[in-house]
Amino acid sequence: MSGFDVGNRLKQMRLSRDLSQRELAKRAGVTNSTISLIEQNSVSPSVSSLKKILDAMPVSISEFFAGESISQKQVFYRSSELTEIGDNTLSWKLVGARRPNRSMSIIHEHYPPGADTGQEMLEHEGEEGGVIIAGTIEIQVGDDIQQLEAGDAYYFDSRLPHRFRNMGTSECVIVSANTPPSFSDGGDEQHHA
Q: What's the confidence (pLDDT) of residue 192?
């Protein structure tokens, strides 16, 4: 999340909702020290941990990273204009994060060797799919675990618990989409809290 002050942004959003660190931690099912360390930028949360904390407010990941500004209906996006919503290990670049009334999320994902979405499985409303562009990825959906390679694809109900891990020795690149945009409408995931 280079160049983005995750700790300060989390603190700002928490305070704007009149939540103490203790209350947010309780709602998110994490320890007070976890919230404190993230706000001090002493630790960088995994995607699943950050999502769990934001769902407890509720705030979407794209709203968290997009800031306050809403863009006009932009059509084309240069690589530098994509919004990074990953953690310090994996990179998820969201297309059109600030687009008003977005009805899907398109994400350019990069998983270096050893990258993992986190021990805690992801779950959210909607469907998601993607195509592996380079490398290999292990995807777990429910009890089913598959290794996919470049050219392979996936499509599943996002309400099923899922996890992505790069167990290989080279970077894995995926282009994915999900609908409704799970990274813009965080209010539907209270069952995580």
A: 27
CATH second-level architecture of 6-65? Orthogonal Bundle (1.10)
Backbone φ and ψ of 117, nearest 5°: -75, -10
What superfamily in CATH does domain 71-185 come from?
Jelly Rolls (2.60.120.10)
- Whether 37 and 74 have beta carbons less than 8 Å apart is answered as no
Sequence-ordered alpha helix ranges (H) in 56-162: 61-66
pTM score:
0.66
Tens-place pLDDT, residues 148-175: 999 999 999 988 999 999 999 999 999 9
Q: Which residue type, as a one-letter code, is found at position 172? A: C
Distance CA 140, CA 71 (A): 35
What are the residue ranges spanned by the domains of the chain?
Answer: 6-65, 71-185
Q: Do domains 6-65 and 71-185 have the same CATH topology?
A: no
Cβ proximity of 148 and 175 under 8 Å: no
Tell me the per-residue pLDDT of 91-148, one tens digit each, with 9 for 90 and over. 888 888 777 777 888 999 999 999 998 888 888 888 999 999 999 999 999 999 999 9
Pairing of strands 127-134, 153-157: antiparallel
